[in-house]
Design goal:
The chain contains 13 helices and 24 strands. With about 400 residues, the protein is of the alpha+beta class. About 10% of the residues are buried. Pfam families: zf-C2H2.
Amino acid sequence: MSLLKSEEVLQSPQQGAAAGLANPAVVREETSTPCGRDVGFVKGFVVQPGEKPFACAECGKSFQLKGSLVNHLRRHSKERPYKCTQCDSSFSEKFRLKRHSHIHEGERPYKCTRCDKSYSCKGDLFNHQRVHTGERPYKCTECDKSYIYKSDLTKHGRVHTGERPYTCTECGKSFTLQNKLSFHYRSHTAEHPYKCNECGKSFNRQNSLTFHYRIHTGERPYKCKDCGRSFIRKEQLVSHSLIHTGERPYKCIDCGKSFIQKSDLLDHQRVHTGERPFQCTECGKSFPVKQTLMRHQEMHGKDRPHLDGPGANSHAGSVCQPGSDMGEGLQRCMECGESFTGKEDLETHQQLHAKEWSHQCSPCGKSFRSKETLTEHQNLHSQDPWTQSRDQALETCGSW
């Protein structure tokens, strides 16, 4: 088969840029077949190691091969010419279609030598092997986190940039991840596709069903290495471990105060916003913190106060009753949301919270987790120590 050849001598940077060459002063030979396909050679020009003469006019990224540039340009144009005959998937590159076809064929030719996992793509096996080697090559430039997969680093980067590219068409709320949008959308459709075979309760997420099922099995796979306590969820263990480390990761952007739990930060931020979402159903008085409302309602003689407002299931020491949303007979700490299969375990756990709130204000009885917070609170009472009665002190506590 004969080739049709034409030569073009590029002598100016403008010509070089137009031809997609990062190095414009080269002799480029356009080679095409009778069908018109452009092969693309650079005549008399040897690409040196590391040199990338083909540049993208859209973003400036350059490549060693013209074919690589062509494939890259499809990312900008959204062109996906390679279509799967088995499903609706389409791809910008032929090798991606070939890799995808293994899914339909059930073929997983790439096997890990360290475990029994196998993959349809060699690259997936390569990435998986980092689980065994501990290699985490993708490092965040903003913090010290690193990842096995590049896609995980991309997702993490949105924490720093604030990018939320996935938007709900129903309410306009946006998310950092596609799967979070999918989960959220079920709140509009009321779809709960994951059903428990034991009790029939259904969930909108697979992992929610997994956590729920541990109530039936008693499985608590996440164990604290410091005290031996175990948890149903990993995030419960992470939150609990802060008690031992003293770490306070939730910081107020207004005043710099930091907190162990996110819920504590949310309560504190109402000091700055003036929000008072917890309202007494007896007298209508409202409070910024739920615990303050509970103490206030004791004045009305309420053994189990009725609570209105957001967060009505936090910051209280009680248990879920049978038939509640945590499962039949499950004991739940209303301070932190952790659940237990036995009442004795719950009571032991609640002693930790009692220690956390060991700093008590003598004028009004309100308790705090730290001495510093108590001191700041007591300054409110000292503003008018001669005229402030106990009732006024209670009112001051409610408005703090």
